[in-house]
């Protein structure tokens, strides 16, 4: 199935304070996961689902993101002169992935505000939002399924994943009703980072959304919430409460492999997991991991 949706918004304006001092001068989205920056995995996932018009929301000192998706003719020429076609292809790949645009967020007012900055680019069409620190394994289907659900139900769709109840306060949490489709649910309520013990379920929002354009109108009137920021979850909660406005909100429950690169420990785990499964690194890395673990 080919989705009529082609636009995706990737918010990348955060300061990356959990990775200081590494992110003092380097955008957190450019931190390497094995040998590619995290944001390239996200763009590759978007392209694989047919989303080839990419808008990245950036902040100050994020020019490295634009440089990565632009051509580096000097480097390409040097590699070409050396006859290093393999590395030349790797360098050129990022600039050929998609039509990548950039817009500044300006004031750091939260995820909802960052998404709102995409209004002029997106226009009056459904679009996807992908967070750059949530990596979904390329072998598992999520975004394509979400696009199919959006097209079938003409509603906004969020990705949900079961989390340990002790971690629920770190996420937006959904109340849901089952539908007649496996792992597709109707969202009946949303709460951003509930106080421990008050969460309505263990289904957390992870960083994939397919939204109807009405969300922009809601975001324009959404008051700052948790942390004094405009929360996308709060705007989605309004769509849940007013299903006649834009068809309500549905969720796709994801049961595959997800790598959280926004947390230092999970970032390290992601690198180890992905590297250990690669044909060029895994055969040497896996025995070393086993030997290292046995020595602890």
Write structural notes for this entry.
It is an enzyme of class 2 (transferase). Belongs to the UDPGP type 2 family. This is UTP--glucose-1-phosphate uridylyltransferase. It holds the Pfam family NTP_transferase. One of its GO terms (biological process) is UDP-alpha-D-glucose metabolic process. This protein has 296 residues and is an alpha/beta fold. It has a single domain (7-262), classed as Spore Coat Polysaccharide Biosynthesis Protein SpsA, Chain A (Alpha-Beta Complex). Helices cover 36% and strands 23% of the residues. It has helices at 38-48, 63-68, 73-82, 85-96, 111-116, 119-122, 143-153, 214-220, 232-241, 243-246, 264-276, 282-294; strands at residues 7-12, 32-33, 36-37, 53-58, 99-104, 127-130, 134-136, 156-162, 172-178, 184-192, 203-211, 249-253, 258-260. It has a 9-stranded mixed sheet. The chain is globular and about 60 Å long. The mean pLDDT is 91.
């Amino acid at each position: 199935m080919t989705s009529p949706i082609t636009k995706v918004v990737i918010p990348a304006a955060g300061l990356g304070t959990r990775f200081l001092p590494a992110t003092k001068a380097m955008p957190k989205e450019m931190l390497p996961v094995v040998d590619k920056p995290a944001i390239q995995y996200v763009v590759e996932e978007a392209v694989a689902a047919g989303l080839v018009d990419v808008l990245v929301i950036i902040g100050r000192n994020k020019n490295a993101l634009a440089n990565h998706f632009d051509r580096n003719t000097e480097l390409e020429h040097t590699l070409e002169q050396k006859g290093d076609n393999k590395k030349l292809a790797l360098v050129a790949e990022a600039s050929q992935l998609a039509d990548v645009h950039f817009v500044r967020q300006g004031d750091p007012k939260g995820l909802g505000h960052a998404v709102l900055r995409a209004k002029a680019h997106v226009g009056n069409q459904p679009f996807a939002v992908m967070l750059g620190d949530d990596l979904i394994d390329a072998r598992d289907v999520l975004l394509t399924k979400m696009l199919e659900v959006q097209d079938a139900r003409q509603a906004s769709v969020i990705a949900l994943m079961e989390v340990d109840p002790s971690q629920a306060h770190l996420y937006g949490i959904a109340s849901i009703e089952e539908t007649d489709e496996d792992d597709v649910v109707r969202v009946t309520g949303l709460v951003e980072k509930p106080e421990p013990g008050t969460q309505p379920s263990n289904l957390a929002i992870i960083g994939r959304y397919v939204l109807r354009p009405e969300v922009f109108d809601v975001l324009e009137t959404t008051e700052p919430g948790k942390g004094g920021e405009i929360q996308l979850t709060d705007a989605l909660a309004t769509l849940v409460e007013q299903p006649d406005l834009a068809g309500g909100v549905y969720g796709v429950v994801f049961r595959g492999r997800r790598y959280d690169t926004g947390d230092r420990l999970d970032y390290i785990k992601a690198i180890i997991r992905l590297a250990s499964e690669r044909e060029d690194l895994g055969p040497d890395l896996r025995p070393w991991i086993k030997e290292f673990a046995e020595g602890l």
